[in-house]
Amino acid sequence: MSINFHDEKNKHTYAARTADSEWIKLINRYLGSKPGTALDIGCGGGIYCKALSDLGADHVIGMDFSESNLNGARENCRSYGNISFVQGNALDTGLPDETADMILERALIHHIRDLDKCFQEASRVIKSGGLFIVQDRTPEDCLLPGSESHLRGYIFEKYSKLISKETERRHSSSEVLKSLSAYQFELIDEISFWETRRSYQDVQELNLDLLNRTGRSILHDLDDDELQDLVGYILEKLSSKQGEPLIEQDRWTIWIAKRRNR
Ligand SMILES: C[S@@+](CC[C@H](N)C(=O)[O-])C[C@H]1O[C@@H](n2cnc3c(N)ncnc32)[C@H](O)[C@@H]1O
Fold it and tell me: Which candidate among 62, 174, 219, 250 keeps its CA 20 to 30 Å from the CA of 137?
């Protein structure tokens, strides 16, 4: 069964990490000195709302269609006075035209089939000249082999039945570029980026993260017995790392675009 974003049990699933410092440095290069109002669509637990605030945004609006994820985000961001949250759908946000100086859609578009509608809505609510940052994994990013740092690759080595599910929901770069261009976005850069997802003290901590399916929607397609077998498989792959810290990374594609003037 796929993840249910509206289940209260999942409310902390996208709030359990902090943004990678290399990600922050990368985004900082594009944001400029006055990011203004930032809109984080599909904000999950607010990890990147905090990062955008730390990067100097005057105000960050976190939007998600899941009230339970927003509850997790509100808790996660409670010490930030300039972050507010609103429930809404990426395809029809309900926000006024030209609300945001910049928009982030991180790990959102693989949950959305109608990319055109999603980018058309972003194009409406962003100001002319505004920065649109889309980050997701392409099918190629997802299917890189497993290693001591790219743990996600082991999931598909162990369960090839998940490969089609994963690749079918991922948009190719050419699809993303086509929709960006159709809705008045000019591409500035397309970046292939290894982002540190999490550091673990040891394999036991990783074990727990996997068993809780934290922030890994694909694991909701495995039943508990299959998940247990997967964890055993991964721990065997990491047998030489017993008692050592682990750094997990994922490969992403980041499209940086600018809204053409109206
Ligand atoms: C994989 S999580 C990513 C969360 C966050 N952006 C991050 O990178 O940590 C995807 C989020 O998008 C939200 N979402 C999925 N489809 C959506 C839609 N059509 N409109 C708004 N939010 C949506 C989910 O509820 C979930 O919080």
Answer: 62
Q: CATH number of the domain at 99, please.
A: 3.40.50.150
Site to substitute for ligand 1 among 10, 12, 14, most atoms within 8 A of C-beta:
14
Q: 108 alpha carbon to ligand 1 midpoint, in Å?
A: 5
Q: How far apart are the C-alpha atoms of 73 and 94, rounded to whole Å?
A: 20
Q: Do 123 and 255 touch, CB atoms closer than 8 A?
A: no
pLDDT band at 11 (very low <50, low <70, confident <90, very high): low
Q: How far is the CA of 64 from the centre of ligand 1 (A)?
A: 6
Question: How far apart are the C-alpha atoms of 228 and 207, rounded to whole Å?
Answer: 9
In the chain, how many domains are there?
1
- The string of pLDDT tens digits covering residues 161-186 is 999 999 999 999 999 999 999 999 99
Q: Among 71, 108, 213, 220, which is best to mutate for testing ligand 1, by the most ligand atoms less than 8 A from CB?
A: 108
Whether ligand 1 lies within 6 angstroms of the CB of 64 is answered as yes
Helix (H, G, I), strand (E, B) or coil at 130: strand
| Structure token digits, residue 60 | 């960050």
pLDDT of residue 172: 98
Q: What is the extent of the structural domain holding 79? A: 8-259
